[in-house]
Please model this.
Amino acid sequence: MTATERQARYDANHTRRYGLKLNTTTDDDIIAWLGAQDSMQGAIKALIRAEISRNGHERGHDAEETA
Model:
């Protein structure tokens, strides 16, 4: 098994990918803010975790469990 195949297997089992479509007219503030971050992924994760903390939710719960 090649390194690429091992990585694909790991990713399939341990990661999830989410996309975000932003409008350059109405979301220009968000686009500019994200572009100024050292790590877009890190900034988004920090904001989500802050919101989770404020609402008392715990990490590790799937959406299906809480829906």
